[in-house]
Amino acid sequence: MHHAPERGEFEPPPAPGLGRGLVLALLAHGLLLAALTLGVQWKRQAENLSVEAELWSAVPQQAAPKAVEAPPPPPPPPVVQRAPEPPRPAVDISVEKEKARLAAEKARMERERAEEKEREKERQKRALEKQAAERQAAEDKKKRELEAARRAEAEKAAAAKQREANLQRMAGLAGATGAPSATGNALQSSGPSQGYAGRIRARVKPNIVFTEDISGNPTAEVQVRVAPDGTIVGRELIKSSGVKSWDEAVLKAIDKTEVLPRDVDGRVPSAMVISFRPKD
Which whole-number Å values give the CA distances from 66 to 49, 70, 73, in the listed order? Predict the structure, then answer.
């Protein structure tokens, strides 16, 4: 005799109304299935309806050619998978870094040389401009000095001329014996007057004894030294006429004259040169 298993002490009791819920579920599923069946049949009937229509064209038209299907494109070439490059050794990387460093250093040095060359050009340009400015300043200074020297010389000459004029005026006021056109500043002229040489020749010529007939009119020049009272104290032939007899006749005539006349101012020059010609 089997005995039903005993219910546990803490097991919940069975829920009441389990059969009624099962019946309601079956009924709801049946209604849903009926509704779906009716909907499918209605859709089929609507699709069976057909409409016919004829189209007429006023202008005859030709049909377009049948579309030709383009041939399918060729399949793309297979992609070749490149084998991955093997990792470079550390030595090659170091060499390339050193090359890059050397190239950068070379570029930097070339850039510095180019900049230094530009700076040198600028320095030379400034030096040339400075030399040109100094040379121009020196030339301007020299011109100013020359101009100042010329002005000083002109002022000095003007002062000397004014002083000479003052001396002449003072000499005239003090009783100078010079002619109005005289340019000296002494009270009287130290040399003979303009006609004094002719007066001496006129004094000496009567004492010349010369009877020879010569060609031309040669000149004999004699320097005569005279005492303050007019006495002849010496004579010297300083230029011969080329005719000895004429030179000797002139010297003898001077010795014979002995005393020369005084000049217009009452004085006798201490030395003078007198010219003598036989046909004068």
Answer: 31, 12, 21
Contact 259, 231 (CB under 8 A): yes
Nearest Cα to 278, choosing from 223, 213, 222, 224?
Answer: 213
- The answer to whether the beta carbons of residues 220 and 239 sit under 8 Å apart is yes
On whether the CB atoms of residues 210 and 245 are closer than 8 A, the answer is: yes
For residue 265, give the amino acid letter. Answer: D
Question: Is pLDDT of 175 > 50?
Answer: no
- Angle of helix 244-257 relative to helix 196-204, nearest 10 degrees? 100
For the chain, strand residue ranges (E) read: 220-226, 232-239, 271-276
Give CA–CA dist 278/253, Å, rounded: 13
CB neighbour list of residue 29: distance below 8 Å, 6 or more residues apart: none
| Residue 92 one-letter amino acid | D
Q: Which residues contact 60 (CB under 8 A, 6 or more apart)?
A: none
The strand ranges marked E within 202-270 are: 220-226, 232-239
pTM over 0.90: no
% pLDDT > 70, the chain: 70
